Amino acid sequence: MYLTLDGQGELYRQLLRALKQAILDGLYAGGTRLPATRDLAADLRVSRNTVLAAYELLCAEGLAVARGGSGTFVADAVPSRTRPRHAARRRDEPSRYAARLRGLPPLPLPAPRAGLRVDLQYGEPMTNAALLTAWSKSLSYAVARTRTGYPATQGVRELREQLAAWLGRRRGVICEPDDLIVVNGTQQALSLLARVLLDEGDRVAVEDPGYALASQCFAAHGANVLPVPVDGQGLRTALLPQQKVKLAYVTPSHQFPLGISMSLARRMELLQHAARVGCWIVEDDYDGEFGFEGRMLPALRSLDRDDRVVYVGTFSKTILPSLRLGYIVCPQALRRDVLLAKRLADFASPGIEQVALAHFMSSGAYERHLRRASLELRRRRRALVDGLSRHCGGRVVVENTGAGMHLVAWLPGLDRAVLQRLIDAAAERGIGLHGLDGHYASTPPGSALLVGFANASVAQIGLATRVLAQCLDVAVRRTDISPRSDARLAPA
Question: Residue 296 — very low, low, confident or very high, per pLDDT cuts 50/70/90?
Answer without folding.
Answer: low
